Amino acid sequence: MDEFLTYSPERVIDLNLRESAQRFLRVCRQEHLHLRDLAEEVAKTPLDPQELLASLPDRTPDPFLEESEGDGKAVKGIQALHAAALKVLFATELCRALEQRIPLSPALFFGEPSELSESAAGLVLYQKSSFADEAYLGFAKHVEGLHAQYASSFSRACEDVYNGLCEYCILPVFNTSEGPLGSFYRLIDRYDLKIVATCTARAAEGSPETTFALLRRELLPNEPLLAKHESRYLAFTLEGSDPVAARLLAAAELCGLSPEAVDTTLPSEAGESISLRYTLSVANGDLSSFLLYLAMDAPHYRPLGLYAHLEHET
User: Fold this and answer.
1) Is this prediction's pTM over 0.85?
2) Residues with Cβ within 8 Å of residue 231, at least 6 apart in sequence
3) What's the fold here for domain 113-218?
4) In this model, does residue 311 exceed pLDDT 60?
């Protein structure tokens, strides 16, 4: 009787919260074990790695499409972030299962590069300027086999890369006075080029800085270059609304990648609808798990670059 008299509403609430938290943790552990078993089964598939990645959206559960609230509305807010966390957990487990069978090199996620003629290999085109010359010298210190020619225009440099007449071109993509340079990103989108590396150039100490990108027709990650530099980035574009962006950025953060920038691209830049251009800092994050997450949840994303930023050397 004395024990009953000591109970209060606060005490009852406290006990219920503790019991609910313990039950929730048990459910999460069970969920984790189920996802681990599912990852092991998916990893046993006889498909080759590229076919497996292409089939992931059809082979794995999609909590975003199937779940809904009681009133019929789509999952949103904390429920959507919970669904993203489930997919990240599955991607992490699948990554571990796959790595026991195949090496998960970043290049695996972007396809095989096309062959280049001997005259095109290593050739870089760019429009002459003191800034661009400095950027080229910065790239040449870190990327073997580069040799340069001046182009008559920025668009001509991009067109020659697209047509396989040279391997690379150099474009400015950002400066400290204007921010992202939309007109040059439109050229990148028009010719579907990919960023290999970036570096910063400036005319004199204290003057505005311009960031240049070394661009290629296909995304061919330079893994020794990525390993050598701490400033590493993944960039891609994806059609989608703000809730989709929030979910994707939450997944990136769970994988240890942090947002560097999210920019809107106009319809004329990338297809017929507005897209978002994401730039994520890779740093020490779990890149393979995030790329697997993208393969499942955003299979139509357009990779823009997986690259190192080469710091300015005085």
Assistant:
1) no
2) 281, 308, 309, 311
3) D-Maltodextrin-Binding Protein; domain 2 (3.40.190)
4) yes
